[in-house]
Prior knowledge:
By secondary structure, this protein is mainly alpha-helical. It is built from 22 helices and 2 strands. Helices cover 74% and strands 1% of the residues. Helix 7 (97-131) packs antiparallel against helix 17, helix 8 packs parallel to helix 22 and helix 18 crosses helix 19 (404-422).
Amino acid sequence: MLSELLTLQVLVPWLLGMVFGVFVGATPGLTATMAVALIVPISFHLDPNAGLALIIGVSFTAIFAGDIPATYLRIPGTPASAAATLDGHELARQGRGGEALMLDLFCSCLGGLMGVSLLIAVARPLARFALRFSDFEYFWLGILGLSLSALVSRGSTLKGIMAALLGMLIATVGIDVVSGVPRYTFGSVDLLDGLHFIPVMIGLFGLAEVLRNVRAGAGMSLPSVEHSARLSPLVALRTIRRHPWLICQSALAGTVIGALPGAGADIAAWGAYGLAKKTSRQADKFGSGSVEGVIAPTSANNAAVAGAWIPALVFGVPGDAVTAIVLGAMMMYEIRPGPQLFETGNSQVQAIFLIALVTQFLLLPAGLLGIYAFGQILKLPRRYLLIAVVIFSVVGAYALRNSWFDVWVMFAFGLVGFFLESQRVPLAPVILGLILSDLIEDKLRAGLISSSGDLWPLFTRPICMILVSLLVTVLLFGPLLSLVRRVAVRAREG
């Protein structure tokens, strides 16, 4: 089977697809979903193995490449890279951007390998568990994600909660899908479709960073990346050797979250980041350049890509937008995902597993090429890079729907992001609130409709009880741990 994959007929589109994934993932505004959507029509002209290799290669590579601008420019190339802006960018500002990206690359490969291995080992039972989730369980999962985003943010937890609520408020703009009533549109036709995530994200992270640099006014003629920010593979490998459990923990969390339909790599990255901070002995360093804060999300987001294939292959339920597109492509190849695929199409399943495994190794040279190319570009004087960031931000916002309205939304949220940062309000919870708001609202309303308005199942269903207990544990873990440490210190002093 492996010999059939390692032929020129398969390897050429496979490698070209991964180069394309690097370019798209590292370009703010062009998501991994968009990359796969653009590449699928080309895959129809290839044989099934070459087409699947092309698509899988693009999806994994684009997720990693999103960390490159997230680290150097604090602009996530893809939504799954938003968590990488917290510590990766801080390391870049300290002249350790190359080290951060080498950690990203190696941990992406390791996380992907663990995720694919778990996909192979536990696909069927884990997919069955995910399908037991009702609307109420998804509601609590969304609340748990928002709580983590507020708790892991730098500064005041109260400001983190306010930022998350602001993100949810932004997401309510548009037509209510249940009643059909416009909300917060103020008579504007453009707002009927709501505020799209991509222009908001580019504005909050990209344009706000430009405004912050312009306000500072210093170093505009200096390189955006310090000359000391060279690639450090040996340093990164030594760092990885010190944190093997963190990589395993984050990859496992990413795979499990990725296997939940609708969760995706972005929620997996935030979940792994929050878990890493809660279990770290140096939690206070998160957000200020912690290598643990780099390892956790990047190990999780590539693992989540593999995890999303679990419900897609076993039950034909896409785990995220990328696998939804891939399912359509598989139908064109007359591959029917579902339980029967493991009985009648075992060779096809093995081919998919092998492609996903080999892709993790091919990611190393493709990622190095992307890091080196973008690292050279980013050595230009800062003023040129800031101009380029504005241009890419405008292009990324406009290309989404060919709408100038999205460009104005991007500029508006650039100002909002600049203001929030000046008030020390974290931006990450705003983004996660925007992502999770639809899930939380839709699932709660659908669950209440199905239960005729009865709130009792929201707390008494077994999985709901587990999620509520986990939520309470997460909220109380920090204060209780601080209390225990204070008591221990007093006991030692006494």
